[in-house]
Every structure is written in C-alpha cells, then in structure tokens.
Write a structure and sequence with these properties.
The protein has 7 helices and 17 strands. The chain is α+β, with helices and mostly antiparallel strands.
C-alpha cells in the first residue's frame, strides 16, 4: 500500500462545531455557542446547531468572514506517555489535570488537538493525540481492530486455566471479547505482571475481565498502539508526561490498518519531547 503525504487527505462531512474545533477556531463548546449566537453561516445562510458540512466543498463563514480550508492548522500527530491522575479529555468538570495541560501553549491552543480514544485516569502509557478528525473516527470505530499492547500488574497469580480463558474470550455485558494475546512476564504470590495485546477497545475491558477472573488490576500501562510504541528499538522509552511527534512511517502504519490511502503529514514535522 502507498501512503502519501500532503494536502490530499479526503474530506468528510461532519458537524459544523466539530469542523470549527478541528480547525482550531474554537473549542467544541465555544463553537456550539457561536452557532447558537448566529455568528456562523453555511453557504450564505445562518447555520443551526447540528448542521453538517463538507469543508472541502461548503463555504463556512464566521462573523461574515470566510473560513477556508487553508486556514485549518496543519495535521498534528502526537504520542503522549500519560501519567496517572491525568484524564484523557480536553476539559474535566471535576477540575482534574487534563492531557492538554501536558502540552506547550502553541499546541494546547488553537490546534483542535484531542485524544484518540481514552485511558483511565489511573492508567498510564501510550495515548495518541491529533487534530485529524478523520483518523480519530476510524481508529476508534469498532469495525477497525488496531492492536493495543499493555503491561498489567494483577493481584495474585492467575492459573493457566484463567489465562487461557482470557485468551479465548470471556463474556462481558452479553458479548464475548475477541481473542487476546496474554503472556506471563513476571509472577509472584501476591502479584503478577502480564503482557496483554487486545484488538478491540471496550470500556475498561482489561480491568473488567481481570476482576471477573478474580485478579483485579493493580497497575495498567499501555506500551503501544499498533506499531506506535513508547520505546522503539534502541531508543529510550518516552518519559512519563512527555510527548513526541509521530514519524511519517508510524502515521502510514496506522492508516494502512484502516485502509486509508492518503495522509496529511506536515513536511517540517519532527520528533519532539518535553
């Protein structure tokens, strides 16, 4: 499969507030309020909340000024090593630290960056951040099975039969989980480390299965999403709380798993951490 970079990423029909958020015009909530206040027009007519548009075809205006596709911030793809206690959202009503607070101001504001999927507040590790709504949509859709790798410490020492049941799939909420790759990393009487590779992302799946099997999760750390890893080859692991830009090859790898040919990758994008 050929993975191309540039401005040829295909457009999607999406809600106006989502488009404005992804383009860095405003947050999702701010964009919704702008639409309710009558400040947003679509093809010459005042837009209404929930209305959809194709940014590559439709004319979108804010306060009478056209917002062009060229005004959209360049596509950004980041890998974050999320610390414990940080929520995977841009805003938290409980005022807990959010992932955006781990980014510098130039990425935190005006870029439309959001997480691809979630990690529990208590969990740590690999989390993708992007302003590419198309990629987010596909990577989080149940139809596409992008593998995710975890190192998990559970209470006690699971028996071979318990581990095999986990590998084969267990019933959660009336639906059986997909087969999983479960390997014993380090065992003990009071706790055991497992390497778990999942090809689906049901809500709190690892914690729920572990609880069901009688071995609650004590620690959960995600090390990879597809071919995007916190530690690759001889490179040191991305420090906790730090981020880096994805390599073009990593973006292409993610796209290839969901059969998207075109990738909008900024030519000047380099790896970075802080």
């Amino acid at each position: 499969m050929v993975c191309e970079t540039g401005e040829s990423a295909q457009q999607m029909v999406e809600r106006l507030q989502k488009i404005l958020s992804q383009w860095g015009v405003a947050s999702r909530r701010q964009a919704e309020q702008m639409i309710l206040d009558g400040r947003v027009a679509l093809n010459g007519e005042i837009a209404h909340l929930g209305q959809k548009a194709n940014p590559g075809v439709d004319r979108i205006e804010i306060d009478g000024v056209a917002v062009r596709a060229n005004d959209r911030p360049k596509a950004i793809y980041l890998l974050l090593n999320k610390p414990a206690g940080v929520v995977s959202t841009n805003f938290d009503p409980q005022h807990r630290p959010t992932i955006l607070e781990l980014l510098p101001p130039e990425l935190r504001h005006g870029q439309g960056i959001h997480s691809v999927g979630r990690l529990d507040a208590d969990s740590t590790g690999a989390l993708l951040l992007t302003n590419d709504g198309e990629l987010t949509c596909y990577l989080t859709h149940p139809r596409y099975h992008v593998s995710k790798t975890y190192e998990v410490m559970v209470k006690g020492h699971p028996s071979n039969s318990a581990l095999q049941a986990w590998r084969d799939g267990v019933w959660l909420s009336g639906k059986r989980t997909l087969p999983a790759d479960i390997r014993l990393l380090k065992g003990g009487i009071s706790q055991t480390w497992l390497r778990i590779v999942l090809n689906e992302g049901r809500n709190r799946q690892i914690r729920r299965v572990a609880e069901l099997l009688g071995h609650p999760v004590l620690q959960l750390h995600r090390t990879a999403i597809g071919a995007v890893r916190l530690q690759s080859g001889k490179e040191p692991e991305l420090p906790i709380g730090s981020y880096r830009f994805l390599k073009d090859s990593e973006i292409c790898s993610l796209r290839s798993q969901i059969d998207l040919t075109f990738v909008n990758v900024p030519a000047d994008m380099k790896e970075h951490s802080q």
